Amino acid sequence: MTDKLIIFDTTLRDGEQSPGASMTKEEKMRIARQLEKLGVDVIEAGFAAASPGDFDAIKSIAEVIKDSTVCSLARANEKDVRAAGEAIKPAKRGRIHTFIATSPIHMQHKLRMTEDHVVERAVQAVKWALEYTDDVEFSAEDAVRSEMDFLVRVFDAVIKAGAKTLNVPDTVGYSIPALWGERFKELIARVPNSDKVIWSTHCHNDLGMASANSLSAVLNGARQVECTINGLGERAGNASLEEIVMAVRTRRDVFSCDCRIDATQIVPTSKLVSSITGYPVQPNKAIVGANAFAHESGIHQDGVLKHRETYEIMRAEDVGWSTNKLTLGKLSGRNAFRTRLQELGIVLESEDALNAAFARFKDLADRKSEIFDEDIQALVSDEEVTQVSEHYRLVAMGAHSETGALPVARVVLNVGGKEQHADAQGGGPVDATFKAIEQIVQSGTELLLYSVNNITSGTDAQGEVTVRLSKGGRVVNGQGADTDIVVASAKSYLNALNKLHAGTERAHPQV
Ligand code: KIV
Ligand code: ZN
Questions:
Q1: Closest ligand 1 atom to 238 CA
Q2: Residues near ligand 2 ion, CB 5 Å cutoff
Q3: How do residues 162-209 score in pLDDT, each as one tens digit?
Q4: This model's pTM is above 0.85
Q5: Are the C-beta atoms of residues 238 and 226 closer than 8 Å to each other?
Q6: C-beta 8 within 6 A of ligand 1
Q7: Bridge partners, residue 136, by sequence
């Protein structure tokens, strides 16, 4: 007998809590559509009470997603729960996920609440949520450091109140697999009516064990795993969806459950999330890293050629590595472009947006002979980037470097409708370009990260640049793609500055 394992993806909520990973509504909708295509059961689309923009993004996702449940997080207070309830209202299937901390350290220092008060609030939050949907999930934040007797008491109370899913989070990534599994075994044994609800595991990766801990919970009765694409998430991240799914699939001899994920969509989803959030995937990351299926050593190559299973436990094509298709070229027309966008699940809201994206595609095809799906994704991301808010727009630029001479750059920007230009020298062409931009903008930001990745292979590939800027406690990531990495760098820097300029205040659910 194979049980159903529910895959609850929180890339758009817990993943988005990573520094600088905040996304626009359009970006969230693209990821949500891809998660639906991937086959996740529940999409946690955000934290509705964080800001009007977050509310709006969840509502828009709820309007378009049909095959996955759309969920909003809510702290255990009336305002949050009602915001979540309103945001998921348009969903075909909507869930409210409410939570409160249950560990002594959180109750004492963060909430300043007694145990009785916490139980009362948890029960009340579940009841408020039930006014909007019968699909209510309750989480005991920091369950890993909570006392077992108290956890049993809280979970018993919320089941009686009507919660259908009970989530047990390792909020700080403290557990180890054997202990996490035992925790589930004990909870399921002790909580009355535990067989009437779904037990869920939510693990953070601070000690590198988020996926292992989640899988141990599954072996001990959890039937929902909360995870993110590429393991994105605050600090060291969350359990990664691809690792959970492929572990359960590859070790069917060990796990008596399966999920409805279409594994061939894993790599495309990973690439989309990485390009939108600006969080590159490390090359040796399981399943989705560029080297995950590369056999470097001669002995391994020889073995794989003679008999694949000697060194391979999964097939690259089964997780979507071969979907890197050569799709369009210089001669492809507007209709072919539109069709490919549809096949990739990309919906451009207007004919103008399609025309602009097509113009960019033609421009790219002039510089790059082969256009892959990833190029199209990046091109559309670039299009969305420019729609975000264009207080600073790149009009023109040039950079020059020569051995023995200081690199120089010249940029022309349109700043709030007025053209300005500057020249600067720097340690390299990118440094000179950023200095020229700063001469104009004088942003006073701190550059926290600069990274370049090639979108496809080859020296004519587009470079995708991510910069992370910080100012006054706010951190933003900017992205830009171009076949010229100095231009991509300028675009990403301006994208980050535009995000800072457009910045809205958002509440963090756990602080
Ligand atoms: O890590 C955590 O405890 C959370 C909860 C809000 C579920 O993300
Ligand atoms: Zn979390």
A1: 1
A2: 14
A3: 999 999 999 999 999 999 999 999 999 999 999 999 999 999 999 999
A4: yes
A5: yes
A6: no
A7: 96
